[in-house]
Write a structure and sequence with these properties.
The protein is mainly alpha-helical. The protein has a domain of about 80 residues. The protein has a two-stranded antiparallel ribbon. Strand 1 and strand 2 form a beta hairpin. The longest helix is centred in the first third of the chain and has 36 residues. The N and C termini lie far apart (about 85 Å). About 10% of the residues are buried.
Amino acid sequence: MVTLGLSRVDDSVAAKHPGLREYAACQSNAFLKGILTFVTGTGAAFGLQMLVHRKCPYPLQWTLLVAVVTGSLASYGVTRVETQKCSNLWLFLETGQLPPDSGTGLLVAPLLAPASLPEWTPDAEAANKSCSIFPPEF
């Protein structure tokens, strides 16, 4: 039996999946980041609302509700991204290949130089000047 976090895994399963420890460590890290994001996001949202509360008083229950919802959304986003990284790591450890990029579904046009800009040509006088860190000699 191999201990993996708080649970135990059979030796045969651990031998079949050599990247299991790395994947479990990655998932643990992702969940920890999510928890820390929840605490930080909730605290930051609550602090900002306390500043707004001075100008526009409203019941404290709404302040807490909005702060917790904000922290939850931020935590969900961070945990989702980190868990996707762990899934990609697992696929890489199992297959030896990176998974195909899921992409955003947006088509990005290449950057083109605007046609209205004139082409740059070096100035003859500026090209003859030396560029030195020492002052010119008199």
